[in-house]
Amino acid sequence: MFLHKLSIYNFRNIRRSDLTFAKHINCFIGKNGVGKTNIIDSIYYLSFSKSPSNRDDKDNITFGETGFQLKAHYHRAESEFDISCALDKGRKMLKRDGKEYEKVSDHIGLIPAILVAPKDIEIIQGASEERRKFIDGCISQFDRKYLDALLVYKNALRGRNALLTSQTYVDPIIFESYEDKLASAGIFLRDARQQFIETFKGKVDEVYRKISYDTEECEGVDIEYRSQTMESDYLTMLRTLRGEDQRRGFTTWGVHRDDYNFKRTGRKIKKIASQGEMKTMLLALKFAWIDMFVAKSDVKPILLLDDIFDKLDSGRVERIVNLVAGENFGQIFITDSNKVRMSGIVDRLTQDRAYFETVSGTFSTI
Q1: What's the rounded Cα separation, in Å, for the pair 298 and 115?
Q2: Quick check: 335 and 305 in contact, CB under 8 A?
Q3: Burial of 40 (0-12, 13-18, 19+ CB in 10 A)
Q4: Which of 216, 251, 290, 347 has the smallest set of CB atoms within 10 Å of its CB?
Q5: How far is CA 46 from the centre of its chain?
Q6: Mean pLDDT by groups of 10 residues along the chain of 366 residues
Q7: What's the predicted TM-score (pTM) here?
Q8: Cβ contacts of residue 118 below 8 Å, gap of 6+?
């Protein structure tokens, strides 16, 4: 899978740009705030029909314009196709080879892409919700039943929480209906998460070691799955806690409160690690997931690395680039401010590369 050509019109600070890419590594070089992230976001948008920052679509339009348009030509295996996405006067149109999709969901999965961006550090440093969202996304890519159970659980949780705050009498039978769904879906999700982590943590540790020192002697990492539902009967606990939950106004017990502890030497990484070490853990999580994705789907996703090398020493940067340039990864897009550093690493790895200088939303080959 690779992106051959990309045309951008009125997307954020990019008024017009027509680019042709290398099959292997593409580097966008420039100062902060000149538009490097916008090019990465445009590529992500074509894969998922939404911004990675979940901003409102109209916020992607260049100031003073009424819409934007992205056009791209892709190669996947033996096939080629065009994808376009446009927003004009509030209407979004997503097309493949000139034919508009009936549902956006029909497009998702055609162009797999993985983004690693500075905000992703919240997976390590942030609240448990960020870690659950990441792991749920990983499992859902492989297991449709998991995604279905997750949707059932979220809907039932929303319904039960609404009942808990109701100012009028609620028949216990209605509570029981939601609690039955929460228990059934919750047990499925818990078991799937536990099973996934048992495999995933070994891969994360392997990648972490490669980025850190590429030796067996370096301190490895571990992932601990924590769920309050492990020790008690799920349905019994929901019934028992109903009165307390009504007083507090929300469901206090269940897999929606699960967490994952990322550890090194038995302690939480977010409490003991430097910024560089936390970023290394983030990359290990993302790259390990790509390994699993490729093994299961036999498709190498487009990899988007947006300004991830800040606070990393030159040795780690080189090991990261060496790692992603390997056979488990496909086409790569990198943004960075240091042309000398990137070219010194990339030029030794491949001749199939391209460099683009970024200045105020314009891109020129260098």
Answers
A1: 19
A2: yes
A3: buried
A4: 216
A5: 15
A6: 96 96 96 92 94 86 95 92 94 96 87 91 95 92 89 97 95 96 98 96 93 69 96 96 96 98 92 89 93 85 90 85 84 93 91 94 91
A7: 0.85
A8: 306, 307, 308, 310
